[in-house]
């Protein structure tokens, strides 16, 4: 079970426990038993609102996970179970592959966003993008003071169509990667 799923389950459990405590615990539900306003006069809304916030957070986490799973499955379908990405992973350095994968998932991502998503320094991002652009894997477009990064049209077509002559494309990628 992933850390995100474990966190979601713990948040759901905590939220449900807080809801039950806020409604059924006599000390929390009625801290002033000698009043004439009934059982919910002293209803402690802190537990209730904490439970609601925790449950909403658990739902948001589960939606984010489902979006990640959907985008990953769409990408895997389009590139024949990840064979093309595996080929690219084997030909590129690890940092270059992280960048190309983020660009594939977020077409038109800014160079600044890559900096925040990867944790790499701005200069490292710039050097990696320059290498990938020289290998004709990405295309940069000026966007204000930064750049928007897109995958090159041939790579995007290869991933979308999935009908790939692996030998030919492997040689093409290998030649570009060896041009360093």
From TrEMBL:
Q: Which domain of life is it from?
A: Archaea
User: What keywords are assigned to this protein?
Assistant: Membrane, Transmembrane, Transmembrane helix
Q: Does the keyword Membrane apply?
A: yes
**Locate the DUF7343 domain: which residues?**
94-150
The membrane-spanning stretches of this chain are: 39-61
- What CDD domains does the entry give? HTH_ARSR (cd00090)
- Report the protein name in the record: Transcriptional regulator, MarR family
Q: Which organism is it from?
A: Ferroglobus placidus (strain DSM 10642 / AEDII12DO)
The lineage is: Archaea, Methanobacteriati, Methanobacteriota, Archaeoglobi, Archaeoglobales
């Amino acid at each position: 079970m992933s850390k995100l799923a474990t966190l979601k389950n713990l948040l759901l459990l905590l939220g449900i426990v807080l809801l039950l405590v806020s409604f059924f615990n006599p000390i929390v539900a009625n801290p002033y038993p000698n009043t004439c306003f009934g059982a919910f006069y002293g209803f402690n809304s802190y537990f209730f609102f904490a439970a609601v916030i925790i449950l909403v957070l658990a739902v948001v986490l589960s939606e984010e996970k489902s979006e990640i799973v959907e985008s990953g499955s769409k990408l895997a379908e389009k590139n024949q179970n990840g064979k093309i990405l595996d080929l690219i992973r084997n030909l590129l350095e690890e940092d270059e592959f992280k960048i190309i994968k983020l660009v594939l998932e977020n077409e038109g991502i800014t160079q600044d966003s890559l900096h925040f998503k990867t944790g790499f320094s701005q200069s490292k991002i710039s050097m990696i993008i320059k290498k990938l652009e020289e290998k004709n894997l990405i295309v940069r477009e000026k966007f204000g003071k930064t750049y928007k990064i897109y995958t090159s049209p041939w790579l995007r077509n290869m991933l979308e169509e999935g009908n790939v002559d692996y030998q030919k494309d492997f040689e093409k990628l290998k030649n570009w990667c060896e041009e360093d």
